[in-house]
């Protein structure tokens, strides 16, 4: 039951002017069959949805959240399924849940100037709806199984993956630290209208996420929290979306899409980005995957499909050269020839060292006995690239992994259109699958591919990008190449952004093992004092 009692400790909110939205055309697609759009938030006359946040329409909830500092009882105001655009295509997905802590461990808290955790819940580029949530920290759909699928989850690190040891929920940790938490739903590759048309293909998911940010800014002072301190987060495809949001802030390339759905006329830039195993840079992901995992067999013992694996690995040399990357920590120019050495020295050995240092002497001895490829000397772990690959053991995807020749991959579906469920989005797979060396991508795809790739905006030095980045993946993750997240880190570091990047030793896909550290990092950057 909704309650409209304002609990003491919640800061009074100032008034916001009437809706200011980019003028929009009426919604052009009906909700999908079986959709939970019972309260559609659009009038029968087609009038636009108000973008003024109703600060009194909440439920009071209490939960216990375990963090590194122990168990914390949190009472919060929960606002469910708030539509964030004036002309929603489907309000079941274009809505958000908002959680505002008002009391932590029996003490009232004022969060009027706290950071805002924007924890997207997308997994596998599928749609995510807030309607099923019963409180903060809704995990959302988990797509795929160990090592092979694309995990998702609120705030990052809640998906399904191989070797995962800890999946801490950033949304819950943020709430326990006195942050405001926003969990937006978005359209995705699986949305199908009653007439059979698709309405969530690229770039719908990033357009919706931008619209959610604009809604928050439009309601500055009505929604508690500091809209200058929005922290985007997600895991797997959700991490890709978080990275894209951070990289593309305020880009005019999305204007027409945002206008169409009636997004608020506000900034969609975010303060900081947290991304766990981002499945991104999709138009080059097949190349990167073969560079890293091309020598490994599949779990069945079969080798990767040839000549595709070798051809894609060879193509990565030119792509990496085109990025003009310099490695972090003064490594120098990155090439396909020295990248393995870079990954071992800058990321993998430090990760293994931290892991082994934290073990007891007995447990460390046991681990090293079971993993003789590691040399432990002077409190540091060393090993070769080949030794590390033997530790991974096998790859989880065949070649090509993302633009599958039979268009069966989630990413093929992400780049479908209104009447086609799945399409090729790389010339390599298109021409290989058709046998036509002159085949060209559909005319609309180049723009959509750019709109879905953070590397495009980082390469263009987009001035509205996030300047603070928390990038993580598991060392055993085989859902995408480690190069994807490490290239992001290097490119941003080269621009002078604040980049905190590392790997979780023996961690899997979309794993999150240091939520407390991430929260402390943001608190330090903003000067926010945790509750």
From TrEMBL:
Residues 200-285 form the BD-FAE-like domain. Residues 1-29 form the signal peptide. InterPro entries: AB_hydrolase_fold, BD-FAE-like_dom, Tannase_B. Pfam families: BD-FAE. Keywords: Signal. The keyword Nucleotide-binding does not apply. Gene3D superfamilies: alpha/beta hydrolase. The keyword Signal applies. It comes from the Bacteria. This is Tannase. It comes from Streptomyces fuscichromogenes. The lineage of its organism: Bacteria, Bacillati, Actinomycetota, Actinomycetes, Kitasatosporales.
């Amino acid at each position: 039951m909704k309650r409209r009692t304002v609990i003491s400790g919640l800061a009074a909110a100032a008034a916001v002017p009437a809706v200011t939205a980019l003028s929009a055309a009426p919604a052009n697609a009906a909700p999908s069959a079986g959709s939970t759009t019972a309260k559609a938030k659009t009038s029968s006359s087609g009038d636009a949805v108000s973008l003024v946040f109703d600060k009194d329409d909440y439920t009071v909830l209490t939960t216990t959240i375990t963090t590194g500092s122990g168990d914390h009882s949190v009472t919060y105001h929960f606002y469910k399924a708030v539509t964030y655009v004036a002309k929603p295509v489907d309000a079941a997905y274009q809505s958000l849940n908002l959680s505002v802590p008002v009391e932590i461990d029996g003490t009232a808290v004022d969060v009027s100037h706290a950071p805002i955790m924007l924890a997207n819940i997308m997994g596998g580029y599928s749609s995510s709806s807030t309607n099923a949530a019963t409180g903060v920290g809704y995990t959302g759909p988990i797509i795929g199984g160990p090592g092979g699928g694309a995990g998702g989850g609120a705030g990052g690190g809640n998906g399904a993956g191989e070797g995962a040891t800890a999946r801490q929920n950033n949304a819950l940790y943020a709430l326990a630290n006195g942050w405001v938490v926003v969990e937006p739903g978005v359209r995705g590759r699986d949305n199908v209208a009653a007439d059979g048309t698709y309405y969530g293909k690229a770039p719908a998911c990033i357009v919706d996420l931008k619209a959610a940010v604009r809604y928050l800014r439009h309601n500055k002072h009505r929604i508690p929290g500091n809209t200058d301190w929005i922290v985007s987060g997600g895991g797997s495809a959700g991490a890709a979306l978080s990275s894209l949001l951070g990289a593309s802030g305020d880009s005019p390339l999305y204007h027409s899409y945002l206008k169409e759905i009636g997004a608020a006329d506000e900034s969609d830039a975010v303060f900081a980005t947290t991304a766990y195993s981002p499945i991104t840079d999709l138009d080059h992901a097949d190349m990167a995957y073969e560079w890293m995992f091309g020598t490994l067999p599949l779990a069945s013992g079969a080798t990767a499909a040839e000549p595709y694996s070798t051809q894609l690995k060879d193509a990565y040399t030119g792509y990496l050269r085109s990025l003009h990357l310099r490695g972090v920590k003064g490594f120098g120019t990155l090439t396909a020839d020295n990248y393995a050495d870079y990954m071992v020295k800058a990321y993998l050995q430090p990760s293994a060292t931290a892991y082994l240092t934290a073990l007891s002497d007995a447990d460390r001895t046991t681990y090293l006995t079971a993993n003789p490829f590691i040399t432990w000397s002077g409190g540091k772990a060393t090993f070769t690239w080949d030794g590390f690959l033997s530790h991974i053991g096998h790859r989880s995807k065949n070649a090509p992994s993302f633009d599958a020749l039979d268009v069966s991959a989630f990413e093929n579906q992400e780049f479908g259109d209104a009447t086609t469920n799945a399409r090729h989005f790389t010339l390599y797979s298109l021409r290989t699958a058709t046998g036509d060396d002159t085949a060209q991508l559909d005319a609309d795809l180049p723009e959509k591919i750019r709109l879905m790739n953070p590397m495009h905006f980082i390469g263009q030095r987009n001035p509205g990008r996030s300047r603070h980045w928390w990038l993580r993946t598991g060392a055993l993750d085989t859902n995408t190449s480690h190069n994807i997240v490490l290239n992001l880190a290097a490119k941003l570091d080269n621009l002078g952004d604040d980049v905190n990047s590392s790997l979780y030793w023996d961690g899997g896909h979309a794993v999150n093992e240091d939520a407390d550290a991430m929260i402390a990092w943001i608190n330090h950057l903003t000067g926010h004092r945790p509750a």
